[in-house]
């Protein structure tokens, strides 16, 4: 893994880059883009556009190599239309340049918006990246990798109803392509408005929906993040992003645990996996769920103490990485969610000391329990592969 920053003297923005290149010729790029310093939305978006262009030049990428972008907005309701004026930042499916997920989570870096972008490029062959209204699909080595973003449904006005609706809509879309939630979905992100009030409704309905579709403690769940959002619509309570794959061998997938630090989520009634690793011929991908300061029984550790919570959360996260034979050196992206913006300077410094120079975005978001002050999630890419399987 190669990690570095792109900073230009006259551009008020920066890019943090992680690049993984394998002998198979395929390169993956996880890049975070953030403005530097205070400014209007227009000035910051202009600076971000310039640093995106510079990243394209330095990394020798184009918009055609973009798989997805997640845009973190400080004021989604007022900013979505403004984003359309900056096409390099808001690349939706309509122009065929990568899926876009827009999330109402203010970046904690004096920024009005920040971006996590994922690019894939192969030097030996073209990688097929196709876009539709519902998804972006990357196809290589007989496997379809599918990202669905922004699934929401306003027909009901409750967290339970909207959770059922977004999962049902996802399932209908998967079924149309001979896939299922149980067999093909590998990662979910649930964004929840007023999560202190609405999270338990999501948990209840997700548990019931999963049970109906064969996802139980005896089978498996799905690696996930459930986190607060400041949404762009008063009616939208639950919004869903997902990553799925079609064509994997079941032996490629392993669900992670760290029993010395973390117990099963089923112990306290929630239904998600702590993490998932997927081995390919030339590498392994590791997805770590949203992870907080929690003990084996599901209790919050170091209540009201941000320093203690950062330490225990980091231990839990590192233990999950270790269970996948991975280390912090393999991390490609880290997303940090803070409940209180006053904790940002300490949390950022402490996580930099623990996790090094991985591309990292810190956002303001309610974690799913009021007592949790911080949560992190991430993805790692390992050089270890398994020759029984095709390359990524």
Structural features, described:
With 392 residues, the protein is an alpha+beta fold. It has a domain at 1-124: RutC-like (60s Ribosomal Protein L30, Chain: A, 2-Layer Sandwich). It has seven helices and 18 strands. The chain has helices at residues 41-59, 76-83, 159-176, 181-184, 195-212, 306-323, 344-355; strands at residues 2-7, 13-21, 26-35, 66-73, 99-103, 113-122, 128-131, 135-140, 143-151, 185-193, 223-229, 238-246, 253-255, 275-279, 284-291, 331-338, 360-364, 374-382. The strands form three sheets. Strands 1-2-3-6-4-5 form a six-stranded mixed beta sheet. The chain has a six-stranded mixed beta sheet with strand order 7-8-9-12-10-11. Helix 3 (159-176) packs across helix 5 and helix 6 packs parallel to helix 7 (344-355). The model is unreliable at 92-97 (pLDDT under 50).
Strand percent estimate: 25-35%
User: Share of helix among residues?
Assistant: 10-25%
Largest sheet: 6 strands, mixed
Structural class by secondary-structure content: alpha+beta
The top-level CATH class of the domain at 1-124 is: Alpha Beta
Low-confidence stretches: 92-97
What oligomeric state do the depicted chains represent? single chain
The number of distinct helices, counting runs of at least 4 residues, comes to 7
Q: Radius of gyration, Cα only, in angstroms? A: 19 Å
Shape: globular
Let me know the average pLDDT: 93
CATH superfamily of the domain at 1-124: RutC-like
Helix and strand pattern? EEEHEHEEEEEHHEHEEEEEHEHEE
CATH fold-level name of the domain at 1-124 = 60s Ribosomal Protein L30, Chain: A
**Count of individual beta strands:** 18
CATH architecture of the domain at 1-124: 2-Layer Sandwich
Strand neighbour order, sheet with most strands:
1-2-3-6-4-5
Give the N-terminus to C-terminus distance in angstroms: 16 Å
